[in-house]
User: What shape does this take?
Amino acid sequence: MKKILIGIAVFICAAVAWFFQDIREVHALYLYANAFKAENIDNNFRSFYQQYPSLKIAPSAETYELPKKQVAEALPKQYIYDKENREISEWMQRTHTTGMAIMKDGQLIYENYFRGNTEDSQAIIMSVSKSMASMLIGVALEEGKIESIEDPVIKYVPSLAGSAYDNGVTIKHVLQMSSGVRWDEDYGNLDSDLVRSVVATLLGSLDDFSATMVREHEPGSYNRYASIDTQVLGMIIREATGKSYQDYFNEKLWSKLGAEHDAYLMLDAVGEPLVYGGVNITLRDMVRFGQLYINEGKNFQNQSLVNAQWIKQSTIPLGDHVQPGLDNPQSDSGFGYGYQWWIPMNPDDDYAAIGIYGQFIYINPKRGIVIAKTSAYPNYTVDGGWMNHESLIAFQQIAEFLDDGDKTVETKGQNQVLEQAVKTVEEATNPELSSATH
Assistant: This one.
């Protein structure tokens, strides 16, 4: 009888624990769903770091004061997309731009804020965070902490043995979003892998969650965007360097960038950073990071933070499966992909860090252009791929406009400037793009 009572008690305790865990997961999903509603999204995107566990990274001892220059026209009035002239101002409003800044040849020529954001707003940059992780992989490689990106993942993170990241998955595969992991990056599906990872962030460990991943494709054969790949890069950085991700982020990047403001790294429930999308910084500091890449890895003090070779290697598509083009059977994206950097469908030696709901750092080295844009685009789950594509088209035409010596629209003839991009745009518009980027 005693054993029966003990058994019943154990069963009841297990049922209660299961019930409360289930309730916590439902609550986490409720918070997730409400965070991106149109009436909440503007404020949430500048306050997530205050709402959830986050770690503050102090700014540089010396600030990189961005030189400013007044120009007659910092933006064209129009751009061409889908064979029609569209207004730049309408695009900025329609995509719920909360801030945009432009650097040309090392000088800040445009800066503006909208929808309640200011120069002090700490905006969550979502997957733009991934490109920062890419830089840190390059630093660890340069320091010899990582011997080669051809090394297997489990050489550095043995806890992932038996998961999708075992048996032939290299660091390079993970950098290129080609690990072969089975993954659904659907932000609108509450049962997707991405949303389940958010629940894991709120309730548990992303390390543990990463270890549950299973394989779908042969590593290196198919480009499928999977945010969990970047989380694994963070684990590699931590284990290879012997330092926490946040300490390495601070030591190798934030303390040397000349940042004006704090950075905030969002954390999972056990205190590990959300490497794949949890950085919160100001617009100007986004520009500073972009300018670091324009300067081939050198900061404002001419100190090399990451070598130029890594910057070049990481921002081009290396391999058939990461080439841009809607007809690429080895990719689920119309864009190309580098090492955690996006390549436009019709590249102009340019590349971009892209985060969901409209976060961008667009870099065009040959034209000396950096464009940073934060947004709170509430329809992202409906047509986010199209919005990303259109935004890159707009950035390319802004860069072309600014690279032309004569900025007087009346004398240059704006349509002539814009029509130069028509041929590269016409073949790039296709409904398949709607799932291209995240």
About this structure: Confidence is low (pLDDT under 50) at residues 9-21, 406-438.
